[in-house]
Hints:
CATH architecture of chain A: 2-Layer Sandwich
Largest sheet of chain B: 2 strands, parallel
Strand content of chain B: under 5%
Low-confidence stretches of chain A: none
Order of helices and strands of chain B: HHHHEHHEHH
Distance between the termini of chain A: 32 Å
Oligomer: heterodimer
Structural class of chain A: alpha+beta
Low-confidence stretches of chain B: 1-7, 28-35
Largest interface: A-B, 22 and 18 residues
Structural class of chain B: mainly alpha
Radius of gyration of chain A: 18 Å
Number of strands of chain A: 10
Strand order of the largest sheet of chain A: 8-1-10-9
Shape of chain B: globular
Number of helices of chain B: 8
Number of domains of chain A: 1
Number of helices of chain A: 7
Largest sheet of chain A: 4 strands, mixed
Amino acid sequence: MARWGMVIDLDRCTACQACVVACQVENNVAPSNAGQAEAGRAISWLRLVPIQGERRGTRPDLQLIPLPCMHCSHPPCIKVCPVQATKIDHEGLVSQVYSRCIGCRYCTTACPYTVRHFNWKKPEWPAPMEETLSPDVSVRPRGVVEKCSFCHHRLQRAKDKAQAEGRPLKEGDYLPACAESCPAEAIVFGDLDDPRSAVVRLSQSPRAFKLLEELGTEPKVTYLSKGEWGGQV
Amino acid sequence: MGADEPSKSFPLKVGVAFAAFFLATTAGMTALSLGGGPAFLRPAVRQPIAFNHLKHVKDLDLACNTCHVTVETETFSGLPAVEICAGCHAEPQGTSAEEKRLVKMIQDQTPLAWVSLFRQPPHVFYSHRRHVVVAKIPCAECHGGIADSTSPPLRVRKLEMKDCLACHERKKVSTDCTACHR
């Protein structure tokens, strides 16, 4: 069985935020206004986090890190959920069951990567955008927590297609919207249990590191960078 | 003693009120969530034509995909467009009044506004292709005796997760939330 993971190459990333927009459109994430952003209530499943890096030559010393859900192998969010609304499945995806969530927000606090978002209000789209919501992703109501799902609805579609064609799922059949949209090909997605996959090859690179590795969450998102990151991430 | 009485009867009243509220809510919730609920709670369905499944499936021996054309290729089985009916009914095949109406609709090219009878909540991903072609599950497994019906059911039939899960467990396929929910 597959174990889905992602590699984000920060040396390739131009911080264009195409992934952020692709994610928002793909997953029916309602746009937030300035007031919500100021209150820390803006929802974004994938966002760019600015981190002060080291200055090298003419390169600016600010590094922007795309931050999706890490889909940890030992997710702290699951341990605190009192109603089993968040679970890790057999393919390593950390799911959020909106209809079970009671909105206690323990998980948003427990997540060391702060990628979980609470719906403080009913999602609203500007008039023409309401017609363009994706039917493949539930619209979350007010009062529940949501987060990056690695676009698992795309896995459902990909599996359905592969099964109908009578073949196993192959690399590239299932890509989240962010990986598909990245013009610099900085986001690579695939099966961490398949030794021939690009994610496995890349995550063995000497440039590879993981965020907050010392917590033992075992994130399935690996970053690549030539920079020195000790103590800064 | 008289002074005690209100304090004794007060908790009793509260208890009764609570019990009544609890029973009413649980009954309400059960009706809405289990077994599709009593018929009067489910939305009524009015089909454009009183289609006779039994006549087509048993008497004429037509396969389901004759009319539900995408059942083996898409997630949605497909409700027949008027052109599909026209394949046989461009000329009247029988004498029923209902067929006369259909023939008229075919001649006028009126779109057939079939109403979906089996409904799932919007947060479920279900693929007919996967269940019909890959798993080879007979239609009746979920759709019951619809093939034996002579007129369309009057109420929506709700499909339930416990039935999905029972089958998934029996067939040893994934019961992960992410396998079906979105």
